[in-house]
Write a structure and sequence with these properties.
Distance between the termini: 36 Å
Oligomer: single chain
Bound molecules: adenosine-5'-diphosphate, aspartic acid, magnesium ion
Radius of gyration: 23 Å
Number of strands: 20
Shape: globular
Largest sheet: 8 strands, mixed
Helix content: 25-40%
Structural class: alpha/beta
Length: 415
């Protein structure tokens, strides 16, 4: 008898019928003797609807109130799922994040989980109930409701699995695993049987929304056995078949000869680039530019400082597109202080990345990538590399083309 956490995403919870299917699946696992915790998302479209409602009243909604509103979608889901389970004769109980409680910091709309009290959940598990806990939300030190950022139910599920020392966390979604790239963009994308934790971390941080990055961080930190699989298979398929399907995140490197050099292509449409032109080329300039950006709580991704000429230099970096205008505003206010000539930006860019632990032992991946993009006439605006990834910033109109040709050039469409 194992302790298992299931997470179901918005599409999987998208209608009464789908919720009843989730209940059938969970009841099957419970009937096999497992102790079950389930973490559902809001029904698909619901979080968007709630955020849009808030924006009708305030163009830039008050973050605390926005979290109060956005968190309600998951509360509906847990209640409905508990009812669907009870209707099947499976004892179940639902909890919000603040009832557990899931404690977070106070960074509304992107809060981080600090701790999870497992006492209440354990007591219900001991009493034989399926425990259903809202994804995406928590409570801060002062009792305010917080949310964990879009896609945050993945993180709730893995964090709860870590807190309970669960045997496995199964992330049920609308694809049957992690693919070599988003199958919506490249239909030839293939499902990976396994992906290393490091690769999954890079894929998630570079924009593959199949898992929220913090969920992967939790999985790595607490060694949570995590699998991504489909919620759209018939709920009554044999448990053993289901338990071995999808993609397993592994903690060992595959050292076999067949290990692909590149495991996947990730992309991110949410990027924007800012360039500070003609700043004095002297020590401390990066700090002077990025200090105020950090003080405004804006995350910076790629950074490039060009070679100086005539005592000045240009400095570019990328931020999330939702923070583009805020970042431009911050820099305009310090422009004269840092002695910059001009601040320009471009929010019609995207980032495309090739990821693979095999890169460590195979030189020449970068040049293959750059040649392939050059042959398509795609200009590279920024480049950044790490041991297991190469990222480029390109005009967003080339996103699909770039992902498709890279997927092909690295042989990812071949089994
Ligand atoms: P959920 O609502 O279940 O959390 P998401 O929409 O957040 O589902 O994530 C699943 C989606 O992630 C898929 O429908 C797919 O379009 C997208 N996706 C992006 N990159 C990948 C990838 N490499 N493998 C699989 N799915 C991916
Ligand atoms: N409902 C939240 C969202 O749409 C959290 C999640 O689905 O993971 O972002
Ligand atoms: Mg998701």
């Amino acid at each position: 008898m194992a302790l298992i956490v299931h997470k179901y995403g918005g599409t999987s919870m998208g209608s009464v019928e789908r919720i009843q299917n989730v209940a059938r699946r969970v009841a099957k696992w419970r009937a096999a003797g497992h102790r079950m915790v389930v973490v559902p998302s809001a029904m698909s479209g619901e979080t968007n609807r709630l955020i849009a409602l808030a924006r009708e009243i305030q163009a830039h909604p008050d973050p605390r109130e926005l979290d109060m509103i956005a968190s309600t979608g998951e509360q509906v889901s847990v209640g409905l799922l508990a009812m669907a389970l009870k209707a099947l004769g499976t004892d179940a109980i639902s909890y919000t994040g603040w009832q557990v409680p899931v404690r977070t910091d106070s960074a509304y709309t992107k809060a981080r989980i600090l701790s999870i009290d497992d006492a209440r959940v354990r007591a219900d598990l001991d009493a034989g109930r399926v425990v259903i806990v809202t994804g995406f939300q928590g409570i801060d030190e002062l009792g305010h409701v917080t949310t964990l950022g879009r896609g945050g139910s993945d993180t709730s599920a893995v964090a709860i699995a870590a807190a309970l020392k669960a045997d496995e966390c199964l992330i049920y979604t609308d694809v049957d695993g992690v693919y070599t790239t988003d199958p919506r963009v490249v239909p030839e994308a293939r499902r990976l049987e396994r992906i290393t934790f490091e690769e999954m971390l890079e894929m998630a941080s570079l924009g593959s929304k199949v898992l929220q990055i913090r969920s992967v961080e939790f999985a790595g930190k607490y060694r949570v056995k995590t699998r991504v699989l489909s919620s759209l298979t018939p709920p009554d398929i044999p448990l053993q078949v289901e338990a071995n399907s999808g993609t397993l995140i592994t903690f060992e490197e595959d050292t076999s000869m067949e290990q692909a050099v590149i495991s996947g292509i990730a992309f991110n449409r949410d990027e924007a680039k800012i360039t500070v032109l003609g700043v004095p080329d002297r020590p401390g300039i990066a700090f002077q530019i990025l200090g105020p950006i950090a003080d405004a709580n804006i995350d910076v991704d790629m950074i490039i400082q060009n070679v100086g000429h005539d005592g000045t230099t240009d400095f570019s970096f990328t931020v999330n597109r939702s923070e583009y205008n805020k970042a431009l505003g911050v820099l305009e206010s310090v422009k004269s202080h840092i002695g910059a000539r001009e601040i320009v930006g471009d929010n019609k860019i995207c980032k495309v990345s090739a990821v693979g632990v095999g890169m460590r032992s195979h030189p020449g991946v970068a040049s293959q990538m750059f040649r392939c993009l050059a042959e398509e006439g795609i200009n590279l605006q920024m480049i950044s590399t790490s041991e297991i990834k190469i990222s480029v910033v390109v005009d967003e109109k080339y996103l699909e083309l770039a992902v498709r040709v890279l997927h092909k050039t690295f042989g990812l469409d071949q089994a």
